[in-house]
Amino acid sequence: MLSQRQLFLQHQAQTTDFPLLLEVERAEGVYMYGPNGERYLDLISGIGVSNVGHRHPEVIAAIQNQLEKYLHLMVYGEIVQGPQVQLATQLVHTLPAHLNNVYLVNSGSEAVEGALKLAKRFTGRTELISCSNAYHGSTHGSLSLNGSENFKNAFRPLLPDVRQIRHNSLPDLVNITHRTAAVIIETVQGEAGVQLPQPSYLPALRQRCQETGTLLILDEIQAGFGRTGTFWAFEQFSIEPDILICAKGMGGGMPIGAFIAPQEIMGSLKNDPLLGHITTFGGNPVSCAASLATLQILQKTNLINQVPAKADLFRQLLVHPQIKSIRNCGLLMAAEFESFAILKPIIDQAIKNGVLTDWFLFCDNSMRIAPPLTITEAEIKEACTVILKSIEEVSS
Ligand code: PMP
């Protein structure tokens, strides 16, 4: 009989040569558990999803409560559904007043697609600008925005009229003109290996967009929902977007995403023709209930306030000649090694030693450190001890 792993490789599509291949039966808090008693401390959080930990009891209770009422009722936006209304209302309360209208979807890429359509429709322009090293998703439109040529080449032609500017380049901002519908940027670049904006960059970008009537779209799919130490990462960079995109951590483990804009911008999706954007499953009520619980956990606890101190502890403890630098914005962290060839065996060894981490899509010499925000001081010490031990074991 084939093992679960063999069946996985045979029947589940693989798009990487390096699947982690861990068998996990249960996950709770910051830990995942394998079928034979293995325990892994999770430093990945499902790529920035499990910000409040795996199976947070309040998220589970909210899901169970909604299961008793209804699952799917109707395509998005036709029927007044309590979980959607409450989530949209609470979300806008976390945001500057102009961001008052929420379109709920199922994933990050879908939220990006919606935001692009909205920007084109509202401005009547077609040009879209994104940054070098950006990652915005895997669907055709979002893929067109990605910074990696490698990633895009096999799928051309992609969306026409997309230009790329260099991340953090002030001179490149002149490429944003009255032709440009929108600039889309990750407030903190995630898959580029945690690249922060220079202090003057986002304000200058904001100003250039203002001057040219271009919409500024911030992708906080990975950086939002407390990950960086503020509810939204943009709160740390003295700017506000015209359109905000979120997903991942938003659902507390359930699939959901959103693009959020002022009502006067969002309203353009219903003009001529009607139904400018449709989704069957967007705003699934169970996902909305989980998301609302997640939002409330982040608001009523100190989890977000504690992020900088927890990140500092990682920085203090992860000192080793093999670690060249650590880049971070809160608990979105990257520990840089010389090369992938050096890093990969360390990651494999760390997993053997019970700490789950990986690398970044566009930055394979850096270790991903993005644990649930619920991680404790003791667990951070445990994680760092294992990482340092794994480096030593691999080097000896
Ligand atoms: N934008 C960013 C910044 C992301 O990190 C990701 C996912 N890694 C996406 C978009 C795409 O989200 P999804 O995988 O949910 O489509």
From TrEMBL:
<dbReference type="GO" id="GO:0008483">
    <property type="term" value="F:transaminase activity"/>
</dbReference>
<dbReference type="InterPro" id="IPR015421">
    <property type="entry name" value="PyrdxlP-dep_Trfase_major"/>
</dbReference>
<dbReference type="GO" id="GO:0030170">
    <property type="term" value="F:pyridoxal phosphate binding"/>
</dbReference>
<dbReference type="InterPro" id="IPR015424">
    <property type="entry name" value="PyrdxlP-dep_Trfase"/>
</dbReference>
<keyword id="KW-0808">Transferase</keyword>
<keyword id="KW-0032">Aminotransferase</keyword>
<keyword id="KW-0663">Pyridoxal phosphate</keyword>
<protein>
    <submittedName>
        <fullName>Aspartate aminotransferase family protein</fullName>
    </submittedName>
</protein>
<dbReference type="InterPro" id="IPR049704">
    <property type="entry name" value="Aminotrans_3_PPA_site"/>
</dbReference>
<dbReference type="InterPro" id="IPR015422">
    <property type="entry name" value="PyrdxlP-dep_Trfase_small"/>
</dbReference>
<dbReference type="InterPro" id="IPR050103">
    <property type="entry name" value="Class-III_PLP-dep_AT"/>
</dbReference>
<dbReference type="InterPro" id="IPR005814">
    <property type="entry name" value="Aminotrans_3"/>
</dbReference>
<comment type="similarity">
    <text>Belongs to the class-III pyridoxal-phosphate-dependent aminotransferase family.</text>
</comment>
<dbReference type="GO" id="GO:0042802">
    <property type="term" value="F:identical protein binding"/>
</dbReference>
<dbReference type="Pfam" id="PF00202">
    <property type="entry name" value="Aminotran_3"/>
</dbReference>
